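so my prof wants the structure for this chain in the tokens format not the other one, which i didnt know existed until like an hour ago. anyway here's the sequence
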Amino acid sequence: MRSEPLLLTARGEGQKGARRRTSPVLAAMALASVLALTATGCGSGDPEANAQASASAASEGDGKITIPDDIRDRLKEHGIDVDKWKDGAWKNWDRDDWLREAQDYINPVIEGLWDPDRMQGAEDPDRGVQKSDLSGDQGVTDPEPAPVDAKAVSPTYHDNVPEAGKVFFDSPEGTMVCSATVVADPAHPGRSNLVWTAGHCVHAGRSGGWYRNIAFVPSYNDQALSAAELAGATEDELAPYGVWWADWAGTSDQWIAQGGPTGGEGAPYDFAVIHVTPENGGSGKSLEETVGSALPVNFAAPAVPRVESITVDGYPAAAPFDGETLYQCQDRPGRLSINASDPTMYRVGCTMTGGSSGGGWVASGADGEPALVSNTSIGPVNAGWLAGPRLGEVAKGVYDSVSQKFAGE
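here's what i got, hopefully its the right format
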């Protein structure tokens, strides 16, 4: 999470008066790249400070790169040489060459890039602050909640929270990590390849562009191996259900235009949906079939006074946590308003730190079944609470656009 509100990837300073308002509809990302949020789990989003970037990315791995013709053509359109990209040109974070717009998303699979050493070395992207009538929540901030100690989930994680996992990506600051959730796909019931995370875990916001080499690992470290055991862990132990690359991603226009690494800018719209594909081609099964579950998403979550309890999942990576263990917090939410004109966010007491960004917030729906109602976006520098966006019309637009893109498959 981050110091200050855990806002996703772009931490920047405010310029509230200069904020550009954009359509409430999504900004569909094109082939993959991950952004890092601020408070909850991503890295710095200041591209200017990272022009020297090649050296800051952690070891890149020697894996081969798989580039379909359509991606090859898209790379060429942006002046990117495929062979140079394969040999490490993806580490060039020069602002002029950093793809930023929704349609510019490009994330070719580099087989073997996310090996055990690289996954364990990833850092948190530190990001620090209808049925129901929501008018009483608008612009309201409740007293800061009492901290709720995060509890380690019992292994195996897959038996208890099969939808949870980690998102890995590269940013100008190096390898980064966030948390994420497998969600249902209306276009493919029972066969979803959709993952929900924070916007700052795929895009740097107003001061940058799409992150690169974005990949999802469900049930990461499923057996909750200790630090000593992890030293010799194999990929099968860290990623028992495989590594799934984001071949498409979508986040909100608001996050792209306003998002910053600190201060909460863009946080009410800090969400993202990625479509994934198995690194090695897999068995032909979808992500949902592989892990055995996917959560529905509730885009009409009730006003705060009507929510009894929310459970927050995540892999906190900033001290005192190490990013290798899945944790949960459970609390009755309060309200947090970043800007009176933006939707009021949910806020809960929770001691999880950076790395938990993007993790799912789950509550019982009208049918009594669990559903995703938010994701971790921001939190204070010293931890103690987390805040997440309420998922409404804009979030549904992002979700539907990513789902519909692959509806014919």
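also thought this was worth mentioning. The longest strand covers residues 174-183.
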